[in-house]
Write a structure and sequence with these properties.
Strands 11-12-10-13-14-9-15 form a 7-stranded parallel sheet, with helices on both faces. The chain has a 6-stranded parallel sheet with strand order 16-26-25-17-24-23, sandwiched between helices. A 5-stranded antiparallel sheet has the order 2-1-4-3-5, with helices on one face. Helix 1 crosses helix 11, helix 3 runs antiparallel to helix 4 and helix 18 packs parallel to helix 19. Strand 13, helix 11 and strand 14 form a beta-alpha-beta unit. The relative contact order is 0.08. The chain is built from 23 helices and 30 strands. It is of the alpha/beta class and 742 residues long. The radius of gyration is 29 Å and the shape is globular. Bound molecules: adenosine-5'-diphosphate (ADP) and zinc ion (2 copies). One zinc ion (ZN) binds next to loops. Adenosine-5'-diphosphate binds next to helix 8.
Length: 742
């Protein structure tokens, strides 16, 4: 009797990767078959042999086994990128608790029928002189459409395909002729085409300094010796990490291998892209999240065919189908964008390390403010740690930072959001025609209550996270459900000045306009950047000196270099400190460190002023002192004390249903069922509580938390919950259970 069955996908690039077919595994193949294996299977009526991939193995099948066909053969020898990616998907499914379908859809680029006209662009290639000559020629010959096309190109470097064909009445065949004549390029993806000709390449190469050299040397020695590791470069902003990455890439390319570079979307600026192009030219492909599925698919195809060796992009670029991968670089590894918010809720850092180990590749992580997770691993010796402490450019220094105590300002009668020191410094800059950036943390973080006299925020006595203000005028803890009415006086000092931390960027702008009449002020936040290029336009205007002050949220903190900015002011450093999130202190430290790092990048000394109600909080004092190690020690002590990651693993179980009563009952029953298991396995079980946003689209959501140092134990419990649902299909239809490991 046969016992093993395989689920096989036949057409891996089709829209439906979740379309699988069951096959029997012949006994002679049982020992060799594995998830990801490439197989030949008889398919369709004629039983023609088709190539397929195994995505699951099981002792059960939904079909009568006698009706199933047998796998014909197993492809051996060279390992394809698909095999590796399917194996990786399996690992992700197991580790992050998703379905195999969700995992497959994440790792395999899905081909969708792209509307062929979509976003096609016609770009001018012809030089201006020849353009005029061609217009004359076309006129003489009476080629009116050619004249229209060429004149349009005179005024526009870039034409939309739609506009050319519809408004200008230019036929596709003329466009093709124009392309053949070398007048134009046709461009499918709009944002990042190679902006350089061959001749400009290689110009910008710098000579690495000693510290940078040391990193490259150690890496290269390992690499040549066949040793593969994960390296963490802890280097302050401007210490030359990107230059190091580029040197590492060229070493790996010389060894005939391929490279993936992950960059958070927001840092994927034109400047960065240009640096990579000028060094590596056409061997690079660049992805951004604005690409359509079809465009992403095309990029992955190019990678698969070996047309490019370097893929640069955000999180999803990690799944580039390189079969000869040698190195994965993750820049700004601490960024929360590396964690997926949909199932499988994978972290790119861990997944990269896994993928690298499957392909004998190395991983290089870089950050000015490493995540606690990565730094802990580096201290334990799991990662190799490098530190770059100096700015690479001779004329660039870290700014001088001062912390202003807002409680004192209030005490001494200044009720303005601008401290007296900040006001004075801004005026100095305006007089010298230098630029200022004012930074206010993200709006929406502001639904907590704090005391303006003593600086204390209202916190949960059980969880040490901030209580969140609700519309019904209560304060709630989103970790344990603790709840109190909003007090009229500060429970710590009795002051009546307790306030909702309300000021957003727009308000700051109004206040700044009043306080600094005549100053030219720009604002950048979600509202002002709603348009497609709003972002870039505002930054470009500020960079060109069209404003004296730029006010913004975290968007302004990242990526960009403005040489004329000599002062950075943080309006209220506390706001992000009190997000109801155990990582709030870490995020605050990162933001402040980055914000301060914006000042003084162009040879002029910079200053940063951090205003706060909590000058003594280590996230703030350590950021002001550029003291990462000090911050790490304090924050790690807190995580250990509270059992938060990375001191333990936190599994969030999200239960959701349209039926509130049923959800309620299930949450309670599940908790009761889990209680003895948790006790036996030494898991701390918390909840059920309402999710931070309890109801979305009429779906109610509740949360259970589990903490335990051993990841495997939590995975086993997760599997037990899945098992429970499997035997209760009725329940499983009405209640969605999702997992999030952090
Ligand atoms: P990071 O990625 O750490 O922020 P970058 O690699 O972007 O740092 O370097 C910051 C600036 O210093 C860039 O303008 C870069 O060209 C320059 N730079 C980096 N390394 C050197 C070096 N060895 N000599 C001179 N300039 C350098
Ligand atoms: Zn108080
Ligand atoms: Zn609590």
């Amino acid at each position: 009797m046969r016992t093993l069955f395989a689920k096989v996908i036949i057409d891996i690039s089709s829209e439906k990767v979740d379309r699988t077919f069951d096959y029997c595994v012949p006994s002679k193949l049982e020992d060799q078959i594995h998830v990801g294996a490439q197989v030949q299977v008889p398919f369709g009526r004629g039983n023609t042999l088709r190539k397929g991939y195994v995505v699951a193995l099981s002792n059960q099948t939904d079909y009568t086994s006698s009706s199933l066909k047998e796998i014909f053969s197993l492809e051996k020898g060279s390992v394809s990128a698909e095999t590796l990616l399917i194996e990786l998907a399996w690992w992700m499914k197991e580790r992050y608790g998703s379905t195999m379908n969700q995992a497959l859809k994440t790792v395999l680029p899905v081909k969708q029928k792209v509307k062929s006209k979509e976003s096609r662009k016609i770009l001018r290639r012809i030089s201006p002189d020849s353009l005029e000559a061609e217009i004359d020629k076309a006129r003489q010959k009476g080629y009116k459409a050619q004249v229209r096309l060429l004149s349009a190109l005179r005024d526009h470097e870039c034409l939309e395909w739609e506009r050319a064909t519809k408004e200008l009445g230019i036929t596709p065949s003329l466009i093709r002729t124009a392309e053949k004549k070398g007048w134009i390029y046709l461009e499918l993806k709009t944002v990042y085409r190679n902006p350089l000709d061959g001749k400009e390449r290689g110009q910008s190469q710098v000579k690495l300094n000693k510290d940078q050299e040391a990193v490259v040397r150690a890496f290269a020695q390992d690499y040549r010796g066949g040793i593969r590791k994960t390296y963490l470069i802890h280097g302050i902003t401007g210490s030359g990490k990107t230059e190091v990455y580029m040197e590492l890439i060229s070493q790996v390319l010389q060894a005939g291998k391929q490279v993936i570079v992950l960059i958070p979307e927001i840092a994927l600026t034109y400047q960065t892209v240009l640096r990579f192009y000028s060094r590596f030219g056409d061997r690079i492909s660049i992805m951004n999240s604005r690409l359509s599925q079809g465009e992403r698919y095309d990029q992955f195809q190019r990678a698969r065919k070996g047309e490019v060796d370097i893929m640069i992009g955000p999180r999803s670029a990690l799944f580039t189908p390189f079969s000869n991968l040698g190195l994965i670089i993750i820049d700004e590894e601490h960024e929360s964008a590396y964690k997926s918010e949909t199932a499988p809720r994978y972290h790119a850092r861990e997944t990269a390390v896994k993928r690298a180990s499957m392909q004998q590749a190395s991983v290089v992580l870089g950050s000015a403010t490493p995540s606690l997770e990565a730094y802990t691993k580096a201290l334990r010796g799991e990662y190799v740690l490098f530190t770059l402490k100096k700015r690479a450019k001779a004329d660039s220094f870290l700014p001088h930072t001062e912390v202003v105590d807002l409680r004192k300002e209030l005490e001494e009668g200044n009720k303005s959001v601008f401290s007296r020191l900040l006001q004075k410094k801004i005026e100095e800059r305006l007089a010298k025609r230098e630029q200022v950036m004012l930074f206010m943390n993200r709006r929406g973080y502001a639904n907590f209550i704090s005391c303006r006299s003593c600086g204390e925020a209202m916190k949960c006595p059980h969880c040490d996270v901030t209580l969140t203000l609700h519309k019904d005028h209560t304060l709630k803890c989103h970790y344990c459900g603790f709840q109190i009415p909003v007090p009229d006086r500060c429970p710590h000092c009795g002051s009546p000045y307790i306030a909702h931390f309300g000021a957003g960027t727009q308000k700051i702008q109004e206040l700044a306009e009043k306080r600094f009449p005549g100053a030219r002020i720009l604002r950048m936040d979600l509202d002002t950047t709603a348009g497609k290029n709003g972002h870039e336009e505002i930054l470009a205007a500020f960079g060109a000196g069209q404003a004296d002050i730029l006010i913004g949220t975290q968007m302004i903190v990242k990526g960009h270099d403005f040489p004329k900015v000599t002062l950075v002011g943080v309006i209220a450093a506390d706001v992000s400190l009190y997000a109801p999130d155990f990582r709030a202190g870490e995020k605050t430290f990162q933001l402040l460190t980055q914000a301060a790092g914006r000042a003084g990048r162009g040879g002029r000394p910079g200053e940063a002023i951090i205003q706060t109600y909590n000058p003594q909080h280590y996230s703030i004092s350590c950021a002001a002192g550029q003291d990462y190690e000090g911050f790490y020690r304090m924050e790690m002590a807190y995580r250990k004390l509270m059992g938060y990651p990375p001191a333990a693993v936190l599994l969030t179980v999200l239960l959701s249903s349209g039926d509130e009563m049923l959800l309620d009952r299930f949450a309670v029953e599940l908790t009761r069922w889990l209680d003895p298991i948790a006790e036996r396995r030494r898991v701390q079980l918390i909840g059920p509580v309402q999710a931070p946003v309890y109801k979305i689209n009429d779906i109610y959501r509740k949360i259970l938390y589990m903490k335990q140092q051993n990841y495997d134990i939590l995975i086993q419990i997760k599997n037990q919950i899945d098992g429970l649902l499997e035997i209760n299909p009725e329940l499983a239809r009405q209640i969605l259970v999702q997992y999030d490991f952090s």
